[in-house]
Design goal:
Chain lengths: 344, 443
């Protein structure tokens, strides 16, 4: 080797000019899309919440004229009860025609790519696509290749933005009833504890990216296998508390998550130990968070992350969340197809 | 490309030949595919009949340097011609100023035989520049049964590797090192402990977590580098005289470069290369799931990226190699986790190195050219290349060192377009590339 050893200087530091001068384009997306909660401004969120309330209380017959005969495709590569039905009901409430394409009853089974499926739906007249997909980031691809408004109904381990918005609506109804517009201080002083399988949870990620922007503190709780320390580094306002009882004691909102057995990928978890340390039981709730509303994005596995008593108990807001889901998704579907709702 | 090489006179250029320490205006005469004469400007004397038939290239204001050498490319042939062929890949190489490339064996079928090794070098492949095949270390890259290194070498293989299927088992890696050393071949390792990276598609860290992607930890790279160095050290102690040569492909972590550096200080024959994307880009470039920012090893943290720059500036890195990995558009236009790894690199390496290493970080031009030519030639033992001394091959790149231009992937001579540098400003425009005396590119 002919390395010029004379010019070797071990302590030289790299000039820092690189990052700023490197262009990397954010992909253009349709203004009606919702791919990540991080894409929404607080004003846009205020508007979505307001539209959710307005649409919810509107006369159903009047409401059904809003998107009469507009076409919306639901493209679901993963099973879903709540999200799919809720989006479908939301779109239909506004008068839109919906069609469901699921991976088990379509050409997806034959190997058709996401791009081709998206282009096909667009050619069939779909004006917006609601996508659930097992790969993180799939909505960005669909958005790029179709140019249509895309609503992310859950992508891989990544995000579930409509869930975070309906959780926010639920939280506001509990803690800030009557608040009409949200700001960076709306949830100041509120600690939301999310407990369980944080690693695999897109619901957790979306909430972690959303709630601190309103001033809330997001406290994560769970064993290291399901909650790596790195989770707290994805944004401001996120802390980790491994002791569930201590976490509960400082919580104004308690959000429980299911263990995603289908994504564990060989992870060995002692479920008895998990129940002992992290199950939300009536006793625990009474002892440490006797007034905090309990949220769960579903599906609930009774007897694992929480007991039936808690799920059905007075502090449970689980069914409120489901109801809020329809309202929020009406607002999102309207936003996707009605550009006048976008500029707000 | 069987035409005889014309007699060529390169006049008025600034000759930079790192191997012989020359950096001054010289004229260069190329005859029969070799450098025949290096002389002061205007001092090459030609007979009247030679003068009449010689091709004269005016290199005034241009740099004349040994043709660049990329010791890590994927030419995809045989078997994956929808991505690249030897003809298109070497055309891209010529456009980028490269005159020799070492081709990885992960073709279809795998290059694990002398027949395929010879097939890749056959004139029928229509290569613009010299192709040096790298043989598979084990049968079908399975890490079980060693190939016949003697036969591979006799057929023209310049090194052995299992490439993207790193050799994890200690005893197999040991055997590979022993057998390769016996035949004077370097062992190239793509250092990735694949037991730790299952299902992962980018660097492990907050960015991967934020994007919901499983991450590859730096440990998966440097852990295997350290294991390999340990094996090399053991073999050196046990054997008398024979020295294994371990070459670590595309190092991307600070610890891996440090481990290689330390091994060399301990007297071991361990070398490493760095790819331009690893000294320019970081995991942040994955952005919104940009599959042109997906490669293996992945784009790392800013600290690792800075360590690659530092390693290059400090002379710890032995070569710059592109890991040119063409993929068809439809293969990259898929969900991030499903997209294949890799980007093209042959046409952007010089422009990026001159723009950043030389222009921004003041690495002398001769050092940049050494990393792109002289050192990689020495690393894989390419005799008569990586230098323009009289008698060496007439492998020459002639470029305008200050010309700025914008790289457009759509203009690529590669069959594929998967470049993350599309639209970037490059510095240094290749005007001519000569491979063994033949003009294979001009602009």
């Amino acid at each position: 080797m002919t390395v010029d050893r004379q010019s070797v200087r071990a302590s030289r530091t790299v000039p820092n000019s690189l990052p700023a001068s490197i262009p990397f384009a954010a992909m253009p997306q349709h203004p009606g899309s919702l791919l990540s909660v991080a894409d929404l401004t607080l004003d846009q969120i205020t508007h979505i919440l307001a539209r959710a309330s307005a649409l919810e209380s509107e006369d159903p017959l009047a409401r059904a004229h809003r998107l009469a005969k507009r076409r919306i495709a639901l493209l679901f590569y993963e099973s879903s009860t709540r999200t799919r039905t809720s989006f479908e009901l939301a779109a239909k409430s506004l008068g839109a025609d919906t069609t469901l394409v699921s991976s088990l009853s379509s050409s997806i089974e034959k190997g058709e790519s996401l791009k081709d499926t998206g282009l096909t739906l667009r050619a069939l007249g779909a004006q917006a696509i609601i996508l659930r997909h097992p790969s993180s980031g799939a909505p960005w691809l669909l958005s790029q290749v179709t140019g249509l408004p895309i609503l992310n109904a859950g992508d891989g381990l990544h995000e579930h933005p409509s869930q975070a918005l309906l959780d926010l609506r639920t939280i506001l109804a509990c803690l800030r009833p009557g608040v009409a517009s949200i700001t960076a201080d709306t949830l100041t002083g509120v600690t939301v504890t999310i407990t369980g399988d944080i690693l695999h949870s897109r619901v957790a990620r979306s909430n972690m990216l959303l709630l601190p922007r309103l001033g809330a503190r997001v406290q994560l709780c769970g064993p290291p296998a399901l909650l790596p320390a790195i989770a707290a580094e994805i944004g401001p306002g996120i802390i980790i508390e491994r002791d569930f009882d201590r976490a509960l004691a400082s919580s104004q909102i308690v959000m429980m998550l299911r263990i995603q057995a289908e994504r564990l990928a060989g992870l060995q978890l002692d479920l008895d130990e998990y129940r002992r340390d992290f199950q939300l039981s009536a006793q625990r709730l009474a002892a440490y968070a006797p007034t905090a509303p309990v949220l769960h994005p579903g599906p609930v596995i009774r007897g694992l992350e929480l007991t039936a008593e808690v799920a059905d108990g007075a502090q449970s807001r689980i069914l409120d969340q489901v109801r809020n889901g329809v309202a929020i998704r009406m607002a999102l579907v309207e936003r996707a197809l009605d550009s006048s709702g976008v500029t707000q | 490309m069987n035409l005889p090489a014309p007699l060529t006179l390169l006049r008025g250029g600034r000759l930079i030949d790192p191997a012989s320490g020359i950096d001054e205006k010289k004229d260069l005469l190329l005859r029969d595919g070799h450098v025949a004469e290096v002389a002061a400007p205007g001092r090459v004397r030609l007979s009247p009949e030679d003068a009449a038939r010689a091709l004269t290239l005016d290199a005034t204001g241009l740099v004349v340097a040994p043709g660049l050498i990329d010791i890590h490319v994927h030419l995809r042939e045989p078997g994956q011609t929808h991505k690249e062929t030897i003809a298109t890949g070497t055309a891209a190489a010529a456009a980028g100023g490269f005159t020799a490339v070492a081709a990885m064996p992960n073709t279809t079928p795998t290059n694990d035989s002398p027949e395929i090794t010879r097939w890749m070098q056959s004139p029928e492949r229509n290569a613009s520049v010299r192709v040096f095949p790298i043989g598979a270390a084990t049968r079908a890259l399975k890490g079980e049964q060693l190939n016949d290194f003697a036969a591979l070498k006799a057929a023209g293989a310049v090194a052995v590797t299992d490439d993207g299927h790193p050799i994890l088992r200690d005893n197999i890696m040991r055997e590979v090192l022993i057998a390769a050393t016996r035949h004077g071949l370097p062992v190239i390792q793509h250092a990735e402990d694949t037991r730790l990276t299952e299902g992962a598609s980018m660097n492990a860290g907050p960015v991967a977590y934020r994007l919901g992607l499983r991450g590859m930890s730096p440990e998966a790279e440097y852990g295997l580098v350290e294991r390999d160095i340990r094996l090399v050290a053991e073999l050196e102690r046990e054997s008398k005289g024979a020295r294994p040569h371990l070459h670590v492909a595309h190092t991307s972590t600070a610890q891996a470069v440090a481990a290689v550096h330390q091994a060399r200080r301990n007297g071991l024959r361990v070398t490493c290369e760095v790819a331009p994307h690893h000294f320019l880009l970081t995991e942040q470039h994955v952005g919104c799931y940009n599959t042109h920012a997906k490669m293996n090893p992945p784009l790392r943290s800013e600290a690792d990226r800075d360590a690659m720059i530092q390693g290059i500036l400090d002379g710890m890195v032995d070569a710059i190699a592109t890991d040119h990995a063409p993929h068809a558009a439809h293969e990259k236009e898929v969900e991030f986790e499903r997209a294949p790894n890799g980007i093209t690199g042959l046409e952007t390496a010089l422009g990026l190195c001159l723009q950043w290493l030389h222009g921004e970080w003041r690495l002398p031009l001769s050092r940049v050219l050494s990393l792109l030519s002289t050192q990689p030639a020495a690393l894989l033992g390419f005799k008569g290349r990586g230098t323009l001394a009289v008698g060496s091959f007439a492998d020459v790149v002639i470029f305008d060192p200050d010309a700025k231009w914008i790289w457009r992937a759509a203009d690529s001579r590669s069959r594929s377009r998967n470049s993350p540098f599309d639209g970037w400003t490059m510095r240094g425009r290749v005007r001519y590339t000569l491979s063994e005396g033949r003009l294979v590119y001009s602009a």
